[in-house]
Amino acid sequence: MKTKKLFGFFLFLLLAGSYFTAYSQEVEEKGVVKEKFKASTYILEHIADSHEWHIFTRKNGDIVAIYLPVIVYSKEKGLKIFSSGRLAHGQQYKGFKLEEEGNLKGKIVVVNEAGLADEVNLPLDLSLTKTIIGLLSAAIIGLILFLSLARSYKKTGISHPKGIQRFLEPVILFIRDDIAIPNIGHKYEKYMPYLLTAFFFILINNLMGLIPFPPPFGANVTGNIAITFILACCTFLITQFSGNKSYWRHVFATPGVPFWLLPIMIPVEIIGLFSKPFALMIRLFANMLAGHIVILSLICLIFIFDTLALAPVSIFFVIFMDFMELLVAFLQAYIFTLLSALFISLAVQEQH
Amino acid sequence: MILLSSSLTTPAVGTLFWSALIFGLFFLILTKFAWKPILSAVKARDEMIKGSLESAAKAREEMLKLKSDNEIILRKAREERENILKEAREVRDKLISEAKGKATEEAEKLIEKARIGIENEKLKALSEIHEQVATLSVDIASKLLGEKLKPSGEQSKLIDNYLKEIDFKKN
Q: I want to staple A204 with a disulfide (CB 3.0 to 4.6 A). Which of A49, A105, A138, A163 is the partner?
Protein backbone atom coordinates (compact mmCIF):
# COMPACT_ATOMS: atom_id res chain seq x y z
CA MET A 1 0.00 0.00 0.00
CA LYS A 2 2.82 2.34 0.92
CA THR A 3 4.71 1.68 -2.29
CA LYS A 4 1.58 1.94 -4.32
CA LYS A 5 0.78 5.27 -2.80
CA LEU A 6 4.29 6.61 -3.28
CA PHE A 7 4.33 5.35 -6.83
CA GLY A 8 1.00 7.00 -7.49
CA PHE A 9 2.33 10.18 -6.04
CA PHE A 10 5.43 10.22 -8.22
CA LEU A 11 3.35 9.48 -11.25
CA PHE A 12 1.13 12.34 -10.31
CA LEU A 13 4.04 14.71 -9.78
CA LEU A 14 5.40 13.72 -13.13
CA LEU A 15 2.11 14.45 -14.90
CA ALA A 16 1.48 17.60 -12.92
CA GLY A 17 5.01 18.72 -13.59
CA SER A 18 4.68 18.40 -17.32
CA TYR A 19 1.37 20.25 -17.31
CA PHE A 20 2.88 22.85 -15.10
CA THR A 21 5.89 23.52 -17.34
CA ALA A 22 3.65 23.71 -20.37
CA TYR A 23 1.43 26.18 -18.59
CA SER A 24 4.23 28.38 -17.30
CA GLN A 25 5.73 28.55 -20.76
CA GLU A 26 2.43 29.73 -22.06
CA VAL A 27 2.38 32.48 -19.47
CA GLU A 28 5.83 33.63 -20.44
CA GLU A 29 4.97 33.67 -24.10
CA LYS A 30 2.08 35.98 -23.49
CA GLY A 31 4.46 38.17 -21.55
CA VAL A 32 2.13 38.50 -18.58
CA VAL A 33 3.94 39.52 -15.45
CA LYS A 34 2.61 37.01 -13.03
CA GLU A 35 4.42 35.00 -10.43
CA LYS A 36 4.61 31.41 -11.40
CA PHE A 37 2.93 28.99 -9.09
CA LYS A 38 5.44 26.38 -8.01
CA ALA A 39 3.54 23.35 -6.82
CA SER A 40 6.54 21.50 -5.45
CA THR A 41 7.67 24.50 -3.38
CA TYR A 42 4.16 25.00 -2.13
CA ILE A 43 3.81 21.38 -1.12
CA LEU A 44 7.24 21.12 0.45
CA GLU A 45 6.65 24.27 2.45
CA HIS A 46 3.51 22.73 3.84
CA ILE A 47 4.92 19.38 4.78
CA ALA A 48 8.37 20.47 5.90
CA ASP A 49 9.16 21.67 9.37
CA SER A 50 9.52 25.40 9.83
CA HIS A 51 10.20 27.99 12.47
CA GLU A 52 7.02 29.88 11.82
CA TRP A 53 3.47 28.76 11.36
CA HIS A 54 2.38 30.25 8.09
CA ILE A 55 -1.29 31.14 8.08
CA PHE A 56 -1.79 33.07 4.85
CA THR A 57 -0.11 35.53 2.53
CA ARG A 58 -1.75 38.84 1.75
CA LYS A 59 -2.22 39.99 -1.80
CA ASN A 60 0.63 42.44 -1.41
CA GLY A 61 2.96 39.66 -0.35
CA ASP A 62 2.87 40.18 3.43
CA ILE A 63 3.02 36.94 5.31
CA VAL A 64 0.69 36.40 8.21
CA ALA A 65 2.25 33.77 10.42
CA ILE A 66 2.68 32.71 14.01
CA TYR A 67 6.36 33.13 14.84
CA LEU A 68 7.49 30.26 17.00
CA PRO A 69 10.28 30.47 19.55
CA VAL A 70 13.80 29.80 18.41
CA ILE A 71 16.08 28.06 20.86
CA VAL A 72 19.54 27.82 19.44
CA TYR A 73 22.92 26.98 20.85
CA SER A 74 26.32 27.57 19.33
CA LYS A 75 29.75 27.32 20.89
CA GLU A 76 30.65 30.95 20.29
CA LYS A 77 27.35 32.56 21.12
CA GLY A 78 25.92 30.23 23.73
CA LEU A 79 22.24 29.50 24.23
CA LYS A 80 19.89 32.03 22.69
CA ILE A 81 16.12 32.12 22.83
CA PHE A 82 14.13 34.54 20.71
CA SER A 83 11.15 34.72 18.42
CA SER A 84 11.56 33.48 14.87
CA GLY A 85 9.90 36.74 13.79
CA ARG A 86 13.31 38.33 14.30
CA LEU A 87 14.66 36.15 11.53
CA ALA A 88 11.82 36.75 9.10
CA HIS A 89 12.60 38.04 5.62
CA GLY A 90 16.26 37.09 5.92
CA GLN A 91 16.96 39.33 8.88
CA GLN A 92 19.88 38.64 11.17
CA TYR A 93 19.46 38.55 14.89
CA LYS A 94 22.16 38.06 17.53
CA GLY A 95 24.40 36.65 14.86
CA PHE A 96 21.90 34.09 13.57
CA LYS A 97 20.20 33.93 10.26
CA LEU A 98 17.56 31.72 8.68
CA GLU A 99 18.85 30.37 5.39
CA GLU A 100 16.35 30.93 2.61
CA GLU A 101 18.05 29.25 -0.29
CA GLY A 102 20.23 26.30 -1.06
CA ASN A 103 20.87 23.08 0.78
CA LEU A 104 20.40 24.59 4.21
CA LYS A 105 17.07 26.18 3.39
CA GLY A 106 15.04 26.62 6.56
CA LYS A 107 18.01 25.99 8.82
CA ILE A 108 19.44 28.50 11.25
CA VAL A 109 23.06 29.34 10.64
CA VAL A 110 25.61 31.42 12.51
CA VAL A 111 26.70 34.58 10.75
CA ASN A 112 30.32 35.60 11.32
CA GLU A 113 31.69 39.14 11.54
CA ALA A 114 32.26 39.28 7.84
CA GLY A 115 28.55 38.79 7.33
CA LEU A 116 28.95 35.33 5.85
CA ALA A 117 26.97 32.32 6.95
CA ASP A 118 28.95 29.49 8.45
CA GLU A 119 27.63 26.53 6.51
CA VAL A 120 29.84 23.91 8.12
CA ASN A 121 29.40 24.36 11.85
CA LEU A 122 25.70 24.54 12.28
CA PRO A 123 24.39 25.62 15.67
CA LEU A 124 22.34 23.19 17.72
CA ASP A 125 18.79 24.12 16.87
CA LEU A 126 16.34 23.14 19.60
CA SER A 127 13.61 25.49 18.43
CA LEU A 128 9.99 24.76 19.06
CA THR A 129 9.16 24.34 15.42
CA LYS A 130 5.83 23.77 13.75
CA THR A 131 6.18 20.01 14.11
CA ILE A 132 7.07 20.30 17.77
CA ILE A 133 4.14 22.59 18.49
CA GLY A 134 1.84 20.17 16.67
CA LEU A 135 3.33 17.30 18.64
CA LEU A 136 3.05 19.14 21.92
CA SER A 137 -0.57 20.06 21.24
CA ALA A 138 -1.37 16.45 20.40
CA ALA A 139 0.31 15.37 23.62
CA ILE A 140 -1.67 17.92 25.62
CA ILE A 141 -4.93 16.87 23.97
CA GLY A 142 -4.03 13.26 24.70
CA LEU A 143 -3.21 14.02 28.30
CA ILE A 144 -6.45 15.92 28.85
CA LEU A 145 -8.43 13.16 27.18
CA PHE A 146 -6.91 10.25 29.04
CA LEU A 147 -6.46 11.89 32.41
CA SER A 148 -10.13 12.82 32.38
CA LEU A 149 -10.90 9.29 31.26
CA ALA A 150 -8.93 7.95 34.22
CA ARG A 151 -10.83 10.30 36.52
CA SER A 152 -14.15 9.13 35.15
CA TYR A 153 -13.08 5.54 35.81
CA LYS A 154 -12.34 6.46 39.40
CA LYS A 155 -15.82 7.90 39.63
CA THR A 156 -17.78 5.13 37.98
CA GLY A 157 -15.75 2.34 39.51
CA ILE A 158 -16.74 -0.98 38.08
CA SER A 159 -20.16 -0.02 36.81
CA HIS A 160 -20.89 0.18 33.09
CA PRO A 161 -18.95 2.73 30.97
CA LYS A 162 -20.35 6.24 30.81
CA GLY A 163 -19.75 9.25 28.60
CA ILE A 164 -16.25 9.45 27.22
CA GLN A 165 -15.53 5.90 28.35
CA ARG A 166 -17.99 4.62 25.82
CA PHE A 167 -15.88 5.97 22.98
CA LEU A 168 -12.45 5.14 24.28
CA GLU A 169 -12.99 1.93 26.16
CA PRO A 170 -13.73 -0.18 23.06
CA VAL A 171 -10.49 1.07 21.53
CA ILE A 172 -8.51 0.29 24.68
CA LEU A 173 -10.14 -3.13 24.86
CA PHE A 174 -9.42 -3.67 21.19
CA ILE A 175 -5.74 -2.98 21.76
CA ARG A 176 -5.73 -5.28 24.74
CA ASP A 177 -7.79 -8.13 23.32
CA ASP A 178 -6.86 -8.02 19.66
CA ILE A 179 -3.32 -6.69 19.68
CA ALA A 180 -1.63 -7.33 23.01
CA ILE A 181 -3.09 -10.63 24.21
CA PRO A 182 -3.02 -12.60 20.92
CA ASN A 183 0.57 -11.57 20.23
CA ILE A 184 2.30 -11.25 23.55
CA GLY A 185 0.24 -13.69 25.58
CA HIS A 186 0.04 -13.72 29.36
CA LYS A 187 2.85 -11.17 29.78
CA TYR A 188 0.82 -8.55 27.95
CA GLU A 189 0.08 -6.37 30.95
CA LYS A 190 3.62 -5.06 31.18
CA TYR A 191 3.49 -3.75 27.62
CA MET A 192 -0.04 -2.38 27.58
CA PRO A 193 0.95 1.17 28.62
CA TYR A 194 3.44 1.45 25.77
CA LEU A 195 1.10 -0.01 23.17
CA LEU A 196 -1.76 2.23 24.25
CA THR A 197 0.48 5.30 24.34
CA ALA A 198 1.93 4.58 20.91
CA PHE A 199 -1.49 3.91 19.39
CA PHE A 200 -3.20 7.00 20.71
CA PHE A 201 -0.16 9.21 20.21
CA ILE A 202 0.05 8.26 16.54
CA LEU A 203 -3.70 8.38 16.09
CA ILE A 204 -4.12 11.84 17.62
CA ASN A 205 -1.22 13.20 15.60
CA ASN A 206 -2.51 11.63 12.40
CA LEU A 207 -5.97 13.02 12.92
CA MET A 208 -4.70 16.45 13.90
CA GLY A 209 -2.57 16.48 10.77
CA LEU A 210 -5.68 15.91 8.68
CA ILE A 211 -7.44 18.96 10.04
CA PRO A 212 -5.98 21.78 7.95
CA PHE A 213 -6.75 24.76 10.13
CA PRO A 214 -6.24 26.47 12.60
CA PRO A 215 -2.85 25.94 14.25
CA PRO A 216 -1.92 23.65 16.02
CA PHE A 217 -3.86 21.49 13.58
CA GLY A 218 -2.50 20.62 10.19
CA ALA A 219 1.13 20.11 11.12
CA ASN A 220 2.80 17.20 9.44
CA VAL A 221 3.86 15.45 12.63
CA THR A 222 3.70 11.74 11.92
CA GLY A 223 5.04 12.47 8.45
CA ASN A 224 8.20 13.78 10.04
CA ILE A 225 10.94 11.20 10.08
CA ALA A 226 12.41 12.35 13.39
CA ILE A 227 9.16 11.58 15.17
CA THR A 228 8.66 8.21 13.59
CA PHE A 229 12.31 7.56 14.37
CA ILE A 230 11.74 8.22 18.06
CA LEU A 231 8.65 6.01 18.06
CA ALA A 232 10.47 3.20 16.31
CA CYS A 233 13.38 3.64 18.73
CA CYS A 234 11.03 3.11 21.66
CA THR A 235 9.75 -0.12 20.16
CA PHE A 236 13.32 -1.16 19.43
CA LEU A 237 14.53 -0.48 22.96
CA ILE A 238 11.54 -2.14 24.59
CA THR A 239 12.00 -5.17 22.37
CA GLN A 240 15.71 -5.51 23.13
CA PHE A 241 15.31 -4.96 26.85
CA SER A 242 12.57 -7.52 27.15
CA GLY A 243 14.44 -10.09 25.07
CA ASN A 244 14.75 -13.36 26.95
CA LYS A 245 17.34 -16.11 26.66
CA SER A 246 15.73 -17.83 23.71
CA TYR A 247 15.51 -14.53 21.83
CA TRP A 248 19.21 -13.85 22.15
CA ARG A 249 20.06 -17.45 21.39
CA HIS A 250 18.05 -17.02 18.25
CA VAL A 251 20.24 -14.07 17.32
CA PHE A 252 23.66 -15.36 18.28
CA ALA A 253 23.24 -19.11 17.96
CA THR A 254 20.27 -19.67 15.76
CA PRO A 255 19.06 -23.20 16.47
CA GLY A 256 19.42 -25.59 13.57
CA VAL A 257 22.13 -23.58 11.84
CA PRO A 258 25.53 -25.27 11.49
CA PHE A 259 28.25 -23.40 13.39
CA TRP A 260 30.26 -22.53 10.30
CA LEU A 261 27.30 -20.57 9.00
CA LEU A 262 27.12 -18.47 12.14
CA PRO A 263 29.60 -15.81 10.94
CA ILE A 264 27.06 -15.07 8.20
CA MET A 265 23.95 -15.62 10.25
CA ILE A 266 24.87 -13.42 13.21
CA PRO A 267 25.28 -10.24 11.12
CA VAL A 268 22.08 -11.07 9.28
CA GLU A 269 20.23 -11.52 12.54
CA ILE A 270 21.66 -8.29 13.93
CA ILE A 271 20.59 -6.43 10.80
CA GLY A 272 17.20 -8.02 11.34
CA LEU A 273 17.02 -6.51 14.81
CA PHE A 274 17.39 -3.05 13.33
CA SER A 275 15.46 -3.52 10.13
CA LYS A 276 12.23 -4.28 11.98
CA PRO A 277 11.96 -0.92 13.74
CA PHE A 278 13.41 0.73 10.66
CA ALA A 279 10.47 -0.59 8.67
CA LEU A 280 8.15 0.74 11.37
CA MET A 281 9.72 4.16 11.07
CA ILE A 282 9.59 4.30 7.28
CA ARG A 283 6.08 2.88 7.03
CA LEU A 284 4.47 5.47 9.26
CA PHE A 285 6.56 8.32 7.85
CA ALA A 286 5.97 7.47 4.22
CA ASN A 287 2.27 6.80 4.59
CA MET A 288 1.49 9.99 6.41
CA LEU A 289 3.78 12.10 4.26
CA ALA A 290 2.36 10.64 1.08
CA GLY A 291 -1.16 11.30 2.28
CA HIS A 292 -0.37 14.94 2.97
CA ILE A 293 1.41 15.32 -0.36
CA VAL A 294 -1.43 13.78 -2.34
CA ILE A 295 -4.03 16.03 -0.72
CA LEU A 296 -1.87 19.11 -1.22
CA SER A 297 -1.17 18.17 -4.82
CA LEU A 298 -4.86 17.85 -5.53
CA ILE A 299 -5.44 21.29 -4.06
CA CYS A 300 -2.49 22.57 -6.12
CA LEU A 301 -4.28 21.51 -9.28
CA ILE A 302 -6.56 24.54 -8.92
CA PHE A 303 -3.57 26.88 -8.81
CA ILE A 304 -1.58 25.06 -11.44
CA PHE A 305 -4.36 25.44 -13.95
CA ASP A 306 -5.28 28.80 -12.46
CA THR A 307 -8.96 28.20 -12.96
CA LEU A 308 -11.90 27.85 -10.67
CA ALA A 309 -13.50 25.42 -13.08
CA LEU A 310 -11.21 22.72 -11.80
CA ALA A 311 -12.07 23.41 -8.19
CA PRO A 312 -15.08 21.04 -7.97
CA VAL A 313 -13.04 18.17 -9.38
CA SER A 314 -10.14 18.98 -7.13
CA ILE A 315 -12.38 19.32 -4.08
CA PHE A 316 -14.10 16.07 -4.88
CA PHE A 317 -10.78 14.26 -5.02
CA VAL A 318 -9.53 16.00 -1.90
CA ILE A 319 -12.62 14.91 0.01
CA PHE A 320 -12.16 11.40 -1.25
CA MET A 321 -8.51 11.47 -0.21
CA ASP A 322 -9.44 12.90 3.17
CA PHE A 323 -11.64 9.90 3.79
CA MET A 324 -8.82 7.66 2.66
CA GLU A 325 -6.49 9.46 5.01
CA LEU A 326 -8.95 9.11 7.85
CA LEU A 327 -8.81 5.39 7.30
CA VAL A 328 -5.03 5.50 6.95
CA ALA A 329 -4.74 7.50 10.18
CA PHE A 330 -6.39 4.68 12.08
CA LEU A 331 -4.76 1.99 10.03
CA GLN A 332 -1.23 3.26 10.52
CA ALA A 333 -1.74 3.70 14.26
CA TYR A 334 -3.08 0.14 14.35
CA ILE A 335 -0.27 -1.27 12.23
CA PHE A 336 2.42 0.44 14.27
CA THR A 337 0.91 -0.89 17.49
CA LEU A 338 0.33 -4.33 16.07
CA LEU A 339 3.86 -4.66 14.75
CA SER A 340 5.31 -3.31 17.98
CA ALA A 341 3.35 -5.98 19.85
CA LEU A 342 4.57 -8.56 17.37
CA PHE A 343 8.22 -7.58 17.80
CA ILE A 344 7.85 -7.58 21.56
CA SER A 345 6.23 -10.99 21.38
CA LEU A 346 9.21 -12.33 19.43
CA ALA A 347 11.43 -11.13 22.26
CA VAL A 348 9.39 -12.48 25.15
CA GLN A 349 7.98 -15.72 23.80
CA GLU A 350 9.13 -18.97 25.35
CA GLN A 351 11.21 -21.56 23.60
CA HIS A 352 9.36 -22.90 20.59
CA MET B 1 14.24 13.05 -6.09
CA ILE B 2 12.36 15.85 -4.42
CA LEU B 3 12.00 13.70 -1.34
CA LEU B 4 15.61 12.61 -1.22
CA SER B 5 17.15 16.00 -1.75
CA SER B 6 15.06 17.72 0.86
CA SER B 7 15.38 17.71 4.60
CA LEU B 8 12.32 15.52 4.79
CA THR B 9 14.29 12.33 5.09
CA THR B 10 16.96 13.62 7.46
CA PRO B 11 15.79 13.80 11.03
CA ALA B 12 16.54 17.15 12.64
CA VAL B 13 18.31 17.09 16.00
CA GLY B 14 15.91 19.53 17.58
CA THR B 15 12.90 17.53 16.46
CA LEU B 16 14.49 14.35 17.75
CA PHE B 17 15.20 15.96 21.10
CA TRP B 18 11.77 17.47 21.60
CA SER B 19 9.84 14.53 20.31
CA ALA B 20 11.78 12.15 22.54
CA LEU B 21 11.12 14.42 25.49
CA ILE B 22 7.46 14.98 24.71
CA PHE B 23 6.75 11.37 23.88
CA GLY B 24 8.67 10.21 26.95
CA LEU B 25 6.75 12.52 29.27
CA PHE B 26 3.48 11.66 27.54
CA PHE B 27 4.21 7.99 28.05
CA LEU B 28 5.26 8.34 31.70
CA ILE B 29 2.38 10.59 32.74
CA LEU B 30 -0.21 8.49 30.95
CA THR B 31 1.21 5.26 32.32
CA LYS B 32 1.12 6.49 35.88
CA PHE B 33 -2.07 8.49 35.89
CA ALA B 34 -4.17 7.07 33.09
CA TRP B 35 -3.35 3.60 31.83
CA LYS B 36 -2.84 1.97 35.21
CA PRO B 37 -6.14 3.15 36.74
CA ILE B 38 -8.02 2.60 33.49
CA LEU B 39 -6.66 -0.87 32.90
CA SER B 40 -7.15 -1.90 36.50
CA ALA B 41 -10.73 -0.59 36.47
CA VAL B 42 -11.45 -2.46 33.24
CA LYS B 43 -9.83 -5.57 34.63
CA ALA B 44 -11.75 -5.31 37.89
CA ARG B 45 -14.95 -5.01 35.93
CA ASP B 46 -14.06 -7.93 33.72
CA GLU B 47 -13.31 -10.02 36.76
CA MET B 48 -16.53 -8.98 38.42
CA ILE B 49 -18.50 -9.89 35.31
CA LYS B 50 -16.67 -13.18 35.05
CA GLY B 51 -17.25 -13.87 38.74
CA SER B 52 -20.93 -13.07 38.55
CA LEU B 53 -21.34 -15.18 35.44
CA GLU B 54 -19.63 -18.06 37.16
CA SER B 55 -21.72 -17.74 40.30
CA ALA B 56 -24.86 -17.50 38.17
CA ALA B 57 -23.87 -20.68 36.37
CA LYS B 58 -23.19 -22.34 39.70
CA ALA B 59 -26.53 -21.21 41.07
CA ARG B 60 -28.25 -22.53 37.98
CA GLU B 61 -26.52 -25.84 38.37
CA GLU B 62 -27.50 -26.03 42.00
CA MET B 63 -31.05 -25.18 41.12
CA LEU B 64 -31.10 -27.93 38.54
CA LYS B 65 -29.73 -30.33 41.09
CA LEU B 66 -32.34 -29.27 43.61
CA LYS B 67 -34.99 -29.65 40.99
CA SER B 68 -33.89 -33.16 40.14
CA ASP B 69 -33.69 -33.96 43.85
CA ASN B 70 -37.18 -32.67 44.27
CA GLU B 71 -38.33 -34.77 41.40
CA ILE B 72 -36.77 -37.85 42.90
CA ILE B 73 -38.39 -37.13 46.22
CA LEU B 74 -41.68 -36.49 44.54
CA ARG B 75 -41.45 -39.69 42.57
CA LYS B 76 -40.63 -41.64 45.68
CA ALA B 77 -43.52 -40.07 47.51
CA ARG B 78 -45.81 -40.91 44.66
CA GLU B 79 -44.62 -44.50 44.66
CA GLU B 80 -45.10 -44.68 48.39
CA ARG B 81 -48.59 -43.36 48.05
CA GLU B 82 -49.34 -45.86 45.35
CA ASN B 83 -48.04 -48.65 47.52
CA ILE B 84 -50.03 -47.53 50.51
CA LEU B 85 -53.15 -47.22 48.43
CA LYS B 86 -52.60 -50.59 46.91
CA GLU B 87 -52.11 -52.19 50.28
CA ALA B 88 -55.16 -50.48 51.59
CA ARG B 89 -57.13 -51.67 48.63
CA GLU B 90 -55.94 -55.20 49.18
CA VAL B 91 -56.79 -55.08 52.84
CA ARG B 92 -60.19 -53.69 52.08
CA ASP B 93 -60.86 -56.31 49.45
CA LYS B 94 -59.76 -59.01 51.80
CA LEU B 95 -61.89 -57.68 54.58
CA ILE B 96 -64.88 -57.40 52.33
CA SER B 97 -64.48 -60.85 50.94
CA GLU B 98 -63.96 -62.29 54.40
CA ALA B 99 -66.97 -60.50 55.70
CA LYS B 100 -68.98 -61.65 52.74
CA GLY B 101 -67.95 -65.25 53.26
CA LYS B 102 -68.81 -65.15 56.93
CA ALA B 103 -72.13 -63.53 56.29
CA THR B 104 -73.08 -66.11 53.70
CA GLU B 105 -72.08 -68.90 55.99
CA GLU B 106 -74.04 -67.40 58.83
CA ALA B 107 -76.99 -66.85 56.60
CA GLU B 108 -76.84 -70.39 55.33
CA LYS B 109 -76.57 -71.65 58.83
CA LEU B 110 -79.58 -69.62 59.85
CA ILE B 111 -81.52 -70.78 56.86
CA GLU B 112 -80.59 -74.36 57.62
CA LYS B 113 -81.68 -73.95 61.17
CA ALA B 114 -84.87 -72.33 60.07
CA ARG B 115 -85.51 -75.11 57.61
CA ILE B 116 -84.92 -77.74 60.24
CA GLY B 117 -87.19 -75.88 62.63
CA ILE B 118 -89.85 -75.55 59.98
CA GLU B 119 -89.54 -79.24 59.14
CA ASN B 120 -89.90 -80.18 62.77
CA GLU B 121 -92.81 -77.85 63.23
CA LYS B 122 -94.39 -79.23 60.13
CA LEU B 123 -94.02 -82.79 61.27
CA LYS B 124 -95.42 -81.86 64.64
CA ALA B 125 -98.24 -80.04 63.02
CA LEU B 126 -98.92 -82.98 60.74
CA SER B 127 -99.06 -85.44 63.55
CA GLU B 128 -101.34 -83.08 65.45
CA ILE B 129 -103.48 -82.78 62.41
CA HIS B 130 -103.53 -86.52 62.16
CA GLU B 131 -104.78 -86.84 65.66
CA GLN B 132 -107.27 -84.06 65.29
CA VAL B 133 -108.54 -85.41 62.03
CA ALA B 134 -108.95 -88.83 63.66
CA THR B 135 -110.87 -87.40 66.55
CA LEU B 136 -112.83 -85.13 64.26
CA SER B 137 -113.68 -87.91 61.90
CA VAL B 138 -114.69 -90.09 64.77
CA ASP B 139 -116.74 -87.24 66.05
CA ILE B 140 -118.22 -86.59 62.67
CA ALA B 141 -118.91 -90.28 62.15
CA SER B 142 -120.44 -90.61 65.53
CA LYS B 143 -122.56 -87.59 64.85
CA LEU B 144 -123.48 -89.05 61.52
CA LEU B 145 -124.18 -92.48 62.88
CA GLY B 146 -125.46 -91.23 66.16
CA GLU B 147 -124.60 -92.62 69.43
CA LYS B 148 -124.77 -96.10 68.06
CA LEU B 149 -121.41 -96.04 66.88
CA LYS B 150 -119.13 -96.33 69.78
CA PRO B 151 -115.57 -95.73 69.37
CA SER B 152 -114.15 -99.14 69.45
CA GLY B 153 -110.96 -100.53 68.40
CA GLU B 154 -112.21 -101.72 65.07
CA GLN B 155 -113.65 -98.45 63.97
CA SER B 156 -110.64 -96.44 64.96
CA LYS B 157 -108.58 -98.74 62.92
CA LEU B 158 -110.76 -98.23 59.93
CA ILE B 159 -110.56 -94.49 60.24
CA ASP B 160 -106.92 -94.61 60.49
CA ASN B 161 -106.78 -96.59 57.31
CA TYR B 162 -108.88 -94.09 55.53
CA LEU B 163 -106.88 -91.28 56.75
CA LYS B 164 -103.73 -92.89 55.60
CA GLU B 165 -105.16 -93.17 52.19
CA ILE B 166 -105.79 -89.45 52.08
CA ASP B 167 -102.80 -87.84 50.82
CA PHE B 168 -102.25 -84.51 52.58
CA LYS B 169 -99.50 -83.75 50.41
CA LYS B 170 -101.80 -83.29 47.55
CA ASN B 171 -103.37 -80.30 49.14
A: A138
